[in-house]
TrEMBL record:
Protein name as it appears in the record: Fe-S cluster assembly protein SufB
One GO term (biological process): iron-sulfur cluster assembly
Domain SUF system FeS cluster assembly SufBD core: 213-447
Family recorded in the similarity comment: Belongs to the iron-sulfur cluster assembly SufBD family.
Entry-linked InterPro entries: Fe-S_cluster_assembly_SufBD, SUF_FeS_clus_asmbl_SufB, SUF_FeS_clus_asmbl_SufBD_core, SUF_FeS_clus_asmbl_SufBD_sf, SufBD_N
Length: 476
């Protein structure tokens, strides 16, 4: 390929993530957070009274809790001022709850997601596709063959109305209560949009369902909620993509994810995130796994000024298992604080955590993890592996694993490595005809291969390309 073609390809890829559209909203809340704002949001969504009550309880919880500041090396959150955030923007779409035909979307929203590849994802025969723009889902579609089997994939606002009993039972009651942390409480008060996935007993959804979340407006917050209920013996793979263009004002992303993995069920949750460098990404993600259930978290975190994200699994039933594979990339001015939490609360449970991080140009990455093995969780096992790669002496990378082992008959392993790209590795690849940049990119591609192997090919290609652009300083 010629150099002109290479440049064209890079420019096109950058454009996919950096373009922005002038906001057209049907309704936008005022800046800040108070009871009146909560009531306005709930009324605009025509929610049942019980959901409004949960929002107001979460608001009171949020107002009582201090901002987290006491973790060693955590990102500086002093700039996060919720009173300067627009918490809710409903885009100008005629059909509330989104449309199920791509052609029915307004041209500006359709053009935005066109550039992000949402229609292309559906052409690739994913089982279902949903797209959220600002605070609400604007497009949702599920292949008929899954609907006929009782699989539900719709936006959360619609699920509150159409599957009220299930949502009322699971929504922020058992998995991520508002009392969990300050940003979970914030999320519980002003959540909007997100995905609801329900898979009936003994049903295998053999192709992924996908949701894409786009924050397009300056100085806004996005608070989507994802609720996945996989009944006994079922299987599903959910893929989430997130992006935002760059603005001068800061944005806040504080989503919530709750996953319920039934007995003998299997859920894989994959995320590829590329937030702009002014976004604070402060999410809470958790799964509860029943007997012989299996949960997998696959995560690629790039972009954002600061990220604090630690997907957690509670292994509740005997023989439950959990697997985490994460990659984080931090460049100049970024602090990416990620990790994993696993609670072994039953015998014969198993977990593995594999964390990869890359830092350059003074960026900081942290692995912050917790493994808890309860008394009585006999014959449980865990293996934690943390690898960090640094490009220069200005960058930093720390591993902060914490293990609470309250049972003697268990198997525990931990390994951590931190290092720079070696000159001898670069020299070897240059001796094989590669220039300096290509040699570094090849080393990084090999370093992140464990996560790309777990993603569908189109997402693996995109993740590799995003890492390349981050290395070149072409994004943000």
């Amino acid at each position: 390929m010629s150099s002109d073609q290479d440049h064209l390809k890079e420019t096109d890829t950058e454009a996919r993530f950096e373009f922005k559209k002038e906001q057209k909203a049907a309704f936008a809340a005022e800046k800040g957070l108070n009871e009146e704002t909560i009531r306005v949001i709930s009324e605009d969504k025509d929610e049942p009274e019980w959901m409004l009550e949960r929002r107001l309880r979460a608001l009171k919880q949020y107002q009582k809790m201090p901002m987290p500041t006491d973790w060693p090396g955590q990102p500086d959150l002093s700039e996060v001022d919720v009173d300067e955030i627009v918490p809710y923007i409903r885009p100008d779409v005629e059909v509330r709850g989104g449309v199920d035909d791509w052609r029915d979307l307004p041209d500006d929203i359709k053009d935005t997601f066109d550039k992000l590849g949402i229609p292309e994802a559906e052409k690739n025969a994913l089982s279902g596709v949903g797209a959220q723009y600002e605070s609400e889902v604007v497009y949702q579609n599920m292949q008929e063959r899954w609907e006929e089997k009782g699989v539900v994939f719709m936006n959360m606002d619609q699920a509150v109305q159409e599957h009220e009993d299930i949502v009322k039972e699971y929504f922020m009651t058992k998995c991520v209560p508002p009392s969990d942390n300050k940003f979970a409480a914030l999320h519980g008060a002003i959540w909007s949009g997100g995905s609801f996935v329900y898979v009936p007993e003994d049903t295998t959804v053999d192709m992924p369902v996908q949701a894409y979340f786009r924050m397009n407006s300056e100085g806004m917050g996005q608070f989507e909620h994802t609720l996945i209920v996989a009944e006994k013996g079922s299987e599903v793979h959910y893929i989430e993509g997130c992006s935002a263009p760059k603005y001068s004002a800061f944005n806040l992303h504080s989503g919530g994810v709750e996953v319920f993995v039934g007995e003998d069920a299997h859920v894989q949750y994959s995320t590829v995130q590329n937030w702009s460098k002014n976004t604070y990404n402060l999410n809470t993600k958790r799964a509860i796994v029943e007997k012989n259930g299996r949960m997998e978290w696959i995560s690629g975190s790039m972009g954002s000024k600061a990220t604090m994200l630690y997907p957690a699994s509670i292994l509740k039933g005997r023989g439950a298992s959990d697997n985490h594979i994460t990659i984080a990339f931090a460049g100049e001015g970024q602090n990416i604080d990620t990790g994993a939490k696993v609670y072994h609360n039953a015998p014969d449970t198993k977990s593995t955590i594999e964390s990869k991080s890359i830092s350059k140009d003074g960026g900081r990455t942290n692995y912050r993890g917790l493994v808890h093995i309860a008394n009585g969780a006999t014959n449980s096992s865990t293996a934690v592996e943390c690898d960090a790669l640094m490009f220069d002496n200005e960058s930093t990378s720390d591993t902060m694993p914490y293990m609470e082992i309250n049972e003697s008959t268990v198997d525990v392993a931990h390994e951590a490595t931190v290092g720079k790209i070696g000159d001898e590795d670069i020299f070897y690849l240059q001796s094989r005809g590669l220039d300096d940049d290509d040699a570094k990119q090849m080393i990084v591609s090999g370093f992140i291969e464990p996560i790309t192997e777990e993603l569908p090919i189109e997402y693996a290609v995109e993740l590799n390309r995003l890492v390349e652009l981050e290395m070149e300083g072409s994004l943000g």
